[in-house]
Amino acid sequence: MSRLPYPNYHTLHAKSFPTLNIIKLLFHSAATVDHWTALGNAQFKHLSLADRDRELVIMLTTAKFQSTYEWTHHVPVAGVTRAQQYALAASSKQFSYFIYGKHSPEAGFNPRDLALLTFVETII
């Protein structure tokens, strides 16, 4: 028997949607829910990045910090091609991948994408 009761998070969604692990985690840490929600609101409601640009930033940072969990959740919704996924993944293995133009032109990033990726990589 567990020391802490298991939360009933199965009632959150219809049975057709799986409950994300982050939601399960938050059920065990009620004190962090407000902070996590505020961060999510800031990222998804109050930024002026277009959806695809936001996903490019997420994909690059998850690659650089080797956050496999986040990467796998964002690949289906990122709106990037397979070649672009490979280029973003390759950036995790090379320093200044976009800054010094080490990416492959076959990835098909447009100049705006490259400016954004270079900016984010510079910050990282």
TrEMBL record:
This is Uncharacterized protein. It comes from the Eukaryota.
